[in-house]
Write a structure and sequence with these properties.
alpha+beta; about 35% strand; FAD/NAD(P)-binding domain; globular; eight-stranded mixed beta sheet; single chain
Length: about 350
């Protein structure tokens, strides 16, 4: 095969890049491994995600997806609970609250994949990417289970394993000690979590929980030393509920990989990782996918601008990562004392 853009990974970042590239008239192939056996944790999406969904042509389907909506988030940080409202807009009878989404990832992923197919993206799934094709120091395609594909631009959207950076032996900057988050789902009812997602700080770290479907709750817990907190990984309000198997884990050490290079771009967690306390993983995935697609399309149309556009994109990714690191350091500095 020969395409303009080959994308590895069909999560929100890969789909956003694919949809945007196809909208620019590019030939796009999207490669993804088997669908995960268990749902990924839900994501609290700020109302600011709606303009991105609008640009991708899915805002109507997202609004109709029956995601739970909420006007803000809650936190307990060594004191009384505080509600953080997203904001309001003037309405006919007074201020109307902005509503975020509590995204159920299987549904959101299906919406984005369907849109990619609608705009002409060639989807190969399940089909694993095996290795980059490199010619004279430039990435010119990938080998996959379905054979080789050559491309003007390869986009790594395969997540925090940094598929392309590792295979090209590129340096990955780390800005924190090793961090690992545990997460999972629980079934039942916990009315105290129904109003809005909540994150609670403790001397050992933090725990987050949210209702994500009618009778399904997502949770995530991070400890400073990697050991289970008092009472176990599952946050206290969810312990009486039925767990969905054993807790899962993910490496969330803060790290920044090269977001661009000769013939390639990286998006979402493939470009940078911070822990979930930053609370915008899916939004980052969507936006970096859109930005990278703009850089790819501009560079294909005008090769003289290719390097400048790629460098500008990488600078935006690095600036966002640096802001997150600064905010998270302040965030952890406010944990209750032991």
């Amino acid at each position: 095969m020969d395409v303009d853009v080959a994308i590895i990974g069909a999560g929100p970042a890969g789909c956003a890049a694919a949809i945007t590239c196809a909208g620019q008239g590019l030939r796009v192939a999207l490669y993804d491994g088997p669908a995960p056996a268990r749902p990924r944790p839900g994501e609290t999406l700020h109302p600011g995600a709606e303009p991105v969904f609008q640009a991708l042509g899915v805002v109507g389907r997202v609004r109709a997806a029956d995601f739970l909506r909420h006007a803000g988030t809650r936190s307990r940080w060594g004191g009384p609970e505080v509600f953080h409202a997203f904001g309001t807009s003037p309405g006919p009878s007074g201020p109307e609250p902005w509503l975020g989404f509590q995204a159920w990832r299987p549904t959101l992923d299906a919406i984005l994949l369907a849109r990619a197919a609608e705009v002409g993206v060639a989807l190969f799934r399940p089909c694993r990417a095996r290795a980059p094709l490199v010619d004279a120091g430039r990435v010119v395609g990938i080998s996959t289970d379905a054979g080789e594909v050559t491309a003007k631009v390869v986009i790594d959207a395969a997540g925090g394993r940094h598929w392309l950076a590792r295979r090209l032996a590129l340096p990955i900057r780390r800005d924190s000690p090793p961090l690992r988050v545990r997460y999972g789902h629980a079934f039942g009812r916990s009315p105290q979590l129904d109003a809005a997602p909540v994150i609670e700080g403790a001397p050992w770290g933090w725990a987050w929980a949210a209702r994500v479907r009618a009778d399904v709750y997502a949770w995530a817990t991070l400890t400073r030393d990697g050991r289970p907190p008092p009472g176990g990984w599952v946050p206290e309000p969810l312990r009486p509920l039925d767990p969905e198997g054993a807790p899962r884990g993910a490496d969330v050490t803060w790290r920044l990989a090269p977001a661009s290079g000769p013939g390639f771009l990286s998006v979402g967690d493939a470009a940078s990782v911070v822990d979930p306390a930053a609370s915008h993983g899916v939004l980052k995935a969507l936006l970096t996918g859109v930005w990278a697609a703009g850089a790819a399309a501009g560079g294909i149309r005008d090769p003289g601008r290719r390097v400048g556009l790629a460098c500008r994109y990488a600078a935006r990714v690095a600036a966002w990562f640096n802001r997150d690191v600064a905010a998270l350091r302040a965030f952890y500095g406010r944990l209750p004392p032991g």
